Protein backbone atom coordinates (compact mmCIF):
# COMPACT_ATOMS: atom_id res chain seq x y z
CA UNK A 1 0.00 0.00 0.00
CA UNK A 2 1.27 3.47 -0.85
CA UNK A 3 2.33 5.58 2.14
CA UNK A 4 0.52 8.87 2.78
CA UNK A 5 3.76 10.82 2.23
CA UNK A 6 4.24 9.18 -1.17
CA UNK A 7 0.63 9.93 -2.12
CA UNK A 8 1.01 13.56 -1.09
CA UNK A 9 4.26 13.92 -3.01
CA UNK A 10 2.68 12.30 -6.03
CA UNK A 11 -0.21 14.76 -5.93
CA UNK A 12 2.18 17.69 -5.50
CA UNK A 13 4.09 16.56 -8.59
CA UNK A 14 0.89 16.66 -10.66
CA UNK A 15 -0.09 20.06 -9.26
CA UNK A 16 3.27 21.68 -9.94
CA UNK A 17 3.37 20.23 -13.45
CA UNK A 18 0.26 22.31 -14.12
CA UNK A 19 1.81 25.45 -12.63
CA UNK A 20 -0.84 25.60 -9.92
CA UNK A 21 -0.33 26.93 -6.40
CA UNK A 22 -2.01 25.42 -3.39
CA UNK A 23 -4.16 28.53 -3.17
CA UNK A 24 -5.32 27.91 -6.75
CA UNK A 25 -6.56 24.47 -5.77
CA UNK A 26 -8.16 25.51 -2.46
CA UNK A 27 -11.94 25.91 -2.53
CA UNK A 28 -15.03 25.37 -0.39
CA UNK A 29 -14.45 22.05 1.36
CA UNK A 30 -10.68 22.04 0.82
CA UNK A 31 -8.29 24.54 2.38
CA UNK A 32 -4.72 25.34 1.37
CA UNK A 33 -3.62 24.26 4.85
CA UNK A 34 -5.20 20.82 4.44
CA UNK A 35 -3.57 20.49 1.05
CA UNK A 36 -0.16 21.50 2.42
CA UNK A 37 -0.30 18.91 5.22
CA UNK A 38 -1.38 16.27 2.71
CA UNK A 39 1.49 17.02 0.34
CA UNK A 40 3.98 16.94 3.21
CA UNK A 41 2.68 13.56 4.33
CA UNK A 42 1.53 14.93 7.68
CA UNK A 43 -2.11 13.93 7.17
CA UNK A 44 -4.40 12.21 4.71
CA UNK A 45 -7.34 13.75 2.93
CA UNK A 46 -10.74 12.16 3.32
CA UNK A 47 -12.13 10.48 0.21
CA UNK A 48 -14.38 13.40 -0.74
CA UNK A 49 -11.58 15.94 -0.26
CA UNK A 50 -9.12 13.84 -2.26
CA UNK A 51 -11.56 13.60 -5.16
CA UNK A 52 -12.09 17.35 -4.95
CA UNK A 53 -8.33 17.98 -4.93
CA UNK A 54 -7.89 15.78 -8.01
CA UNK A 55 -10.70 17.53 -9.86
CA UNK A 56 -9.24 20.95 -9.05
CA UNK A 57 -6.07 20.15 -11.04
CA UNK A 58 -8.15 18.96 -14.01
CA UNK A 59 -7.21 15.31 -13.71
CA UNK A 60 -9.82 12.56 -13.74
CA UNK A 61 -9.88 10.02 -10.95
CA UNK A 62 -9.15 7.29 -13.52
CA UNK A 63 -6.07 9.17 -14.76
CA UNK A 64 -4.89 9.78 -11.20
CA UNK A 65 -5.30 6.11 -10.31
CA UNK A 66 -3.63 4.94 -13.52
CA UNK A 67 -0.56 7.09 -12.95
CA UNK A 68 -0.51 6.18 -9.26
CA UNK A 69 -0.50 2.53 -10.30
CA UNK A 70 2.59 3.20 -12.43
CA UNK A 71 0.53 3.01 -15.62
CA UNK A 72 -0.32 -0.64 -15.00
CA UNK A 73 -3.74 -1.98 -16.00
CA UNK A 74 -5.93 -3.79 -13.53
CA UNK A 75 -5.70 -7.60 -13.72
CA UNK A 76 -9.20 -7.73 -15.24
CA UNK A 77 -8.22 -5.33 -18.03
CA UNK A 78 -5.01 -7.23 -18.68
CA UNK A 79 -6.81 -10.57 -18.88
CA UNK A 80 -9.53 -9.06 -21.05
CA UNK A 81 -7.04 -7.76 -23.59
CA UNK A 82 -5.43 -11.19 -23.81
CA UNK A 83 -8.85 -12.71 -24.45
CA UNK A 84 -9.46 -10.20 -27.25
CA UNK A 85 -6.11 -10.91 -28.89
CA UNK A 86 -6.33 -14.69 -28.73
CA UNK A 87 -9.98 -14.73 -29.78
CA UNK A 88 -9.21 -12.51 -32.78
CA UNK A 89 -6.47 -14.93 -33.83
CA UNK A 90 -8.73 -17.95 -33.19
CA UNK A 91 -6.05 -19.20 -30.81
CA UNK A 92 -7.95 -21.83 -28.84
CA UNK A 93 -4.75 -23.28 -27.36
CA UNK A 94 -3.75 -19.80 -26.21
CA UNK A 95 -7.14 -19.29 -24.57
CA UNK A 96 -6.86 -22.64 -22.80
CA UNK A 97 -3.43 -21.62 -21.53
CA UNK A 98 -4.87 -18.30 -20.35
CA UNK A 99 -7.53 -20.24 -18.48
CA UNK A 100 -4.79 -21.99 -16.52
CA UNK A 101 -2.99 -18.71 -15.86
CA UNK A 102 -6.12 -17.07 -14.45
CA UNK A 103 -6.26 -19.73 -11.74
CA UNK A 104 -2.93 -18.38 -10.45
CA UNK A 105 -3.99 -14.72 -10.41
CA UNK A 106 -3.81 -12.85 -7.12
CA UNK A 107 -7.47 -11.88 -6.87
CA UNK A 108 -10.61 -13.01 -5.05
CA UNK A 109 -11.82 -16.48 -5.99
CA UNK A 110 -15.09 -14.98 -7.26
CA UNK A 111 -13.24 -12.86 -9.81
CA UNK A 112 -10.93 -15.68 -10.82
CA UNK A 113 -13.95 -17.79 -11.64
CA UNK A 114 -15.78 -14.97 -13.47
CA UNK A 115 -12.73 -14.24 -15.63
CA UNK A 116 -12.44 -17.96 -16.32
CA UNK A 117 -16.08 -18.00 -17.49
CA UNK A 118 -15.33 -15.20 -19.96
CA UNK A 119 -12.43 -17.24 -21.37
CA UNK A 120 -14.58 -20.38 -21.61
CA UNK A 121 -17.20 -18.41 -23.51
CA UNK A 122 -14.53 -17.22 -25.96
CA UNK A 123 -13.40 -20.81 -26.53
CA UNK A 124 -17.00 -21.93 -27.01
CA UNK A 125 -17.55 -19.19 -29.60
CA UNK A 126 -14.65 -20.64 -31.61
CA UNK A 127 -15.46 -24.29 -30.96
CA UNK A 128 -19.14 -25.12 -30.41
CA UNK A 129 -18.12 -28.55 -29.12
CA UNK A 130 -16.48 -26.91 -26.10
CA UNK A 131 -19.00 -27.41 -23.26
CA UNK A 132 -20.43 -24.65 -21.10
CA UNK A 133 -20.88 -26.09 -17.60
CA UNK A 134 -24.24 -25.66 -15.88
CA UNK A 135 -22.54 -24.79 -12.59
CA UNK A 136 -20.69 -21.94 -14.31
CA UNK A 137 -23.98 -20.69 -15.73
CA UNK A 138 -25.59 -20.75 -12.29
CA UNK A 139 -22.62 -18.99 -10.70
CA UNK A 140 -22.67 -16.28 -13.38
CA UNK A 141 -26.41 -15.60 -13.22
CA UNK A 142 -26.40 -15.54 -9.42
CA UNK A 143 -23.63 -12.94 -9.50
CA UNK A 144 -25.28 -10.74 -12.15
CA UNK A 145 -28.69 -10.84 -10.47
CA UNK A 146 -27.18 -9.93 -7.10
CA UNK A 147 -25.42 -6.75 -8.27
CA UNK A 148 -27.91 -3.88 -8.27
CA UNK A 149 -25.61 -1.26 -9.76
CA UNK A 150 -23.42 -2.49 -12.60
CA UNK A 151 -19.97 -0.98 -13.06
CA UNK A 152 -17.76 -1.52 -16.13
CA UNK A 153 -16.82 -5.01 -14.89
CA UNK A 154 -20.42 -6.28 -14.79
CA UNK A 155 -21.07 -4.73 -18.22
CA UNK A 156 -17.94 -6.43 -19.57
CA UNK A 157 -18.93 -9.72 -17.96
CA UNK A 158 -22.49 -9.62 -19.29
CA UNK A 159 -21.41 -8.63 -22.80
CA UNK A 160 -18.98 -11.53 -23.04
CA UNK A 161 -20.86 -14.40 -21.41
CA UNK A 162 -24.32 -14.30 -23.02
CA UNK A 163 -24.15 -17.90 -24.36
CA UNK A 164 -24.03 -19.08 -20.71
CA UNK A 165 -27.45 -17.52 -20.06
CA UNK A 166 -30.80 -19.17 -20.62
CA UNK A 167 -33.31 -17.36 -22.83
CA UNK A 168 -35.22 -16.23 -19.76
CA UNK A 169 -32.13 -14.91 -17.97
CA UNK A 170 -30.84 -13.23 -21.13
CA UNK A 171 -34.15 -11.43 -21.68
CA UNK A 172 -34.47 -10.34 -18.05
CA UNK A 173 -30.88 -9.16 -17.63
CA UNK A 174 -30.92 -7.43 -21.00
CA UNK A 175 -34.06 -5.47 -20.15
CA UNK A 176 -32.56 -4.69 -16.73
CA UNK A 177 -29.33 -3.44 -18.28
CA UNK A 178 -30.36 0.21 -18.53
CA UNK A 179 -31.59 0.37 -14.95
CA UNK A 180 -28.65 -1.54 -13.50
CA UNK A 181 -26.07 0.62 -15.28
CA UNK A 182 -27.73 4.05 -15.14
CA UNK A 183 -25.56 5.39 -12.30
CA UNK A 184 -22.38 5.13 -14.36
CA UNK A 185 -23.69 5.30 -17.93
CA UNK A 186 -22.25 8.76 -18.64
CA UNK A 187 -18.70 7.60 -17.94
CA UNK A 188 -16.84 7.20 -21.23
CA UNK A 189 -15.69 3.63 -20.64
CA UNK A 190 -19.09 2.49 -19.39
CA UNK A 191 -20.84 4.15 -22.32
CA UNK A 192 -18.60 2.21 -24.69
CA UNK A 193 -19.49 -1.05 -22.95
CA UNK A 194 -23.21 -0.26 -23.11
CA UNK A 195 -23.11 0.40 -26.86
CA UNK A 196 -21.21 -2.83 -27.44
CA UNK A 197 -23.56 -4.54 -25.01
CA UNK A 198 -26.64 -3.59 -27.02
CA UNK A 199 -24.97 -4.80 -30.21
CA UNK A 200 -24.12 -8.08 -28.49
CA UNK A 201 -27.70 -8.41 -27.22
CA UNK A 202 -29.15 -7.86 -30.70
CA UNK A 203 -26.70 -10.39 -32.15
CA UNK A 204 -27.48 -12.95 -29.45
CA UNK A 205 -31.25 -12.54 -29.87
CA UNK A 206 -30.82 -13.04 -33.62
CA UNK A 207 -28.89 -16.25 -33.06
CA UNK A 208 -31.61 -17.53 -30.72
CA UNK A 209 -34.39 -16.31 -33.09
CA UNK A 210 -35.86 -14.05 -30.38
CA UNK A 211 -36.63 -11.41 -32.96
CA UNK A 212 -39.56 -9.79 -31.14
CA UNK A 213 -37.23 -8.38 -28.46
CA UNK A 214 -34.77 -6.77 -30.85
CA UNK A 215 -36.64 -3.45 -31.48
CA UNK A 216 -36.39 -2.55 -27.77
CA UNK A 217 -32.61 -2.65 -27.87
CA UNK A 218 -32.35 -1.06 -31.28
CA UNK A 219 -34.19 1.93 -29.83
CA UNK A 220 -31.83 2.09 -26.83
CA UNK A 221 -28.79 1.74 -29.06
CA UNK A 222 -30.04 4.42 -31.44
CA UNK A 223 -30.47 6.87 -28.55
CA UNK A 224 -26.85 6.36 -27.48
CA UNK A 225 -25.08 6.59 -30.82
CA UNK A 226 -23.37 9.81 -31.81
CA UNK A 227 -22.33 10.99 -35.31
CA UNK A 228 -18.76 9.77 -34.70
CA UNK A 229 -19.82 6.21 -33.73
CA UNK A 230 -19.17 5.00 -37.27
CA UNK A 231 -18.02 1.48 -36.35
CA UNK A 232 -21.08 0.82 -34.20
CA UNK A 233 -23.41 2.18 -36.89
CA UNK A 234 -21.90 -0.09 -39.52
CA UNK A 235 -22.28 -3.14 -37.29
CA UNK A 236 -25.85 -2.15 -36.49
CA UNK A 237 -26.72 -1.83 -40.18
CA UNK A 238 -25.16 -5.23 -40.83
CA UNK A 239 -27.21 -6.74 -38.01
CA UNK A 240 -30.39 -5.19 -39.38
CA UNK A 241 -29.82 -6.72 -42.80
CA UNK A 242 -28.92 -10.07 -41.27
CA UNK A 243 -32.08 -9.97 -39.13
CA UNK A 244 -34.26 -9.29 -42.17
CA UNK A 245 -32.58 -12.11 -44.06
CA UNK A 246 -33.01 -14.62 -41.25
CA UNK A 247 -36.68 -13.75 -40.85
CA UNK A 248 -37.59 -13.75 -44.53
CA UNK A 249 -35.39 -16.36 -46.20
CA UNK A 250 -35.94 -19.26 -43.85
CA UNK A 251 -33.62 -21.44 -41.80
CA UNK A 252 -32.73 -23.63 -44.80
CA UNK A 253 -30.54 -20.83 -46.17
CA UNK A 254 -28.86 -19.81 -42.94
CA UNK A 255 -25.86 -22.08 -43.57
CA UNK A 256 -25.07 -20.08 -46.72
CA UNK A 257 -24.41 -17.04 -44.56
CA UNK A 258 -22.47 -18.80 -41.85
CA UNK A 259 -19.34 -16.85 -42.75
CA UNK A 260 -21.24 -13.58 -42.35
CA UNK A 261 -22.55 -14.70 -38.97
CA UNK A 262 -19.05 -15.59 -37.78
CA UNK A 263 -17.76 -12.23 -39.00
CA UNK A 264 -20.37 -10.20 -37.16
CA UNK A 265 -20.01 -12.14 -33.93
CA UNK A 266 -16.24 -11.73 -33.96
CA UNK A 267 -16.46 -8.00 -34.59
CA UNK A 268 -19.24 -7.25 -32.12
CA UNK A 269 -18.15 -9.61 -29.39
CA UNK A 270 -15.03 -8.68 -27.44
CA UNK A 271 -14.84 -5.33 -29.28
CA UNK A 272 -14.94 -3.46 -25.99
CA UNK A 273 -11.33 -3.29 -24.82
TrEMBL record:
Domain HTH cro/C1-type: 12-64
One MF term in the entry's GO annotations: DNA binding
Entry-linked InterPro entries: Cro/C1-type_HTH, HTH-type_regulator_Rgg, Lambda_DNA-bd_dom_sf, TPR-like_helical_dom_sf, Transcription_activator_Rgg_C
Lineage of origin: Bacteria, Bacillati, Bacillota, Bacilli, Lactobacillales
Protein name, UniProt field: Helix-turn-helix domain protein
PROSITE patterns: HTH_CROC1
Domain of life: Bacteria
